[in-house]
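Q: Is it fine to ask for two folds in a single conversation?
A: Yes, each is treated on its own. Send the first.
Q: Here.
A: Result:
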Amino acid sequence: MIKKTTIDEIIQINLKLNELLSFLLNRNKNEELLKFQVLQRRILKTLNQINNSKLNIEEKIYLYKSIKDSLSGNQVKSKFNIIDFVNQNNIYLGNVYFCCGWLGTFVIFFEEEKYKRIINIDKDKRIKKISEDINRDLIIKDWKYKHLVEDIINLNYVDDKLKLNRFDGTEIEINFSPDTIINTSCEHLNNFDDWINSIPKEKLLILQSNNNDSFEDHINISSSLEEFKKKIKLKKIIYENTIKLNDCERYTVIGYK
């Protein structure tokens, strides 16, 4: 039996999916609408798997809430700011580390010819299965997407050896040299200077932060776009902007270190 608390979360997720659909309909891009259908199907299947799992009620609610929050209006606007820049410009991401990438909900909307492989890095092991279930269509395509449970400060941004899992649970080690590093959660990093300094020169960085200090885990906010730019110290900036969201400003900077 599904408890009322989980029903409420599922209803909210479906509402967020409808809001995303409305957003995409206004953009009027057929390819995005087709990708939405894939994303919606995967999310609904994931909800069913969570409901039928042996997880306790608190664990289920955490996963439902993670999916719901990943579809928030602020998340949609922030992620599509990056997606649009990449898709609409002559830019190739190559191998990508998506640092603190959470569920990777919107990865599907990147044009596939814009990158070789995206490795989503997040230290919350509870969301790994959801992340890979949502992006299963990309995983099937020669591992265009994979999720790794790790702290991003432990990564080697020159030439790394990653231990990844196949669908059957067996482990395989691969060499991975990232060309692009994406981090849309810079406000969460308490060791930001150490992290940014660990990335070698000439890498393409796609970074976002905000000025929202109302959350305890927002420990590295920036008061303005200019302050954020000073923190990341890129050699060449190819794109920057500020998005006005419901409760804060979101800063995006893309460029080379």
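Q: Second one now.
A: Result:
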Amino acid sequence: MELPRAGQKIVLPFLQDGNLIPRVTRLRPQAHSLIILPMNLSSLNMDARRLTERIRLNHAYATPSLSRRPLWPTWRYYAGFLQIVIGAWQDLQNGIFSREDFHKRAVQTLKLVERVGGHVEATGLDRLGILNTSAVLVSNHMSLLETFLIPCFVLPFRPLAVVIKRELLRYPFFGPVLRGLPHIAVSRENPKADYRAVMEQGLQLLQKGHHLLIFPQSTRQIAFSPAEFNSLGAKLAGRAAVPLIPLALQTDLHGIGRWLKDFGPIRPERPVRLAFGPPLEPGPDLRTLHEQSIRFIAKRLMEWHVPVHTLPSLTP
């Protein structure tokens, strides 16, 4: 494929009234690193297969040695992210969005992060491999990146459903893609209705063989606040009699936006980390189960020098 020339008109995504809008612009000299060239399907499928083989063999993942970081990482990232979303949307338009398609787009997101200079590492994947049942995954929540990146490491082992904010379903292209995935939409405005939706729909998804990912924090934030980490995941795990897996995340490479929270600056110098904890079996005391998950996440984040608010009084 021929690279666009300086002065040639191209289409790039711009933010307008809170939405990513494709806009025709003229390519400036030395701006080629802004462009993310589309990957063909055979290449995407091969990348997904290789990653699956790698994490099943090594039970971990780390980005290979990086070359020099490119210029304009934020624009390069969002140009690539828009391509991923539109590609997934086109899959849906064809009536197809299987587990394999979901994983393929997740792997494409991983490669995009690495292409803009980010370093990704994931540990504890052996804990997913040894499970012979569904599980509830609970995690801290930093950025929109997690929605597409976590499936990259979970889907090779089992189908995944995610609890998401209902407002995300209203985004152009991105919303229809999320609606095509196994999900539970919550408003965060009616706690009782949200609780009922997660408990009822979550139980059904777990019984169908899906892992279910829940972000118990009320909003995305860099610092981890245990007091705001609700016990919904522990309650669902107890009701469904499935393990609870804590997941510690550092994804502040994808920053929080000033005007539009989901789309902030990209800082590739900040590492992306995922640490899957041991499966915690639910017992009669769900409070202890909840506290064990908090302990694991808080400990990992402190090891990564991520701010952690004062831990509440936990049961010994």
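Q: Anything structural to flag on that second result?
A: Two points. Strands lie at 9-16, 19-26, 61-62, 120-123, 136-139, 160-165, 183-186, 211-214, 244-250, 272-276. The first strand starts at residue 9 and ends at 16.
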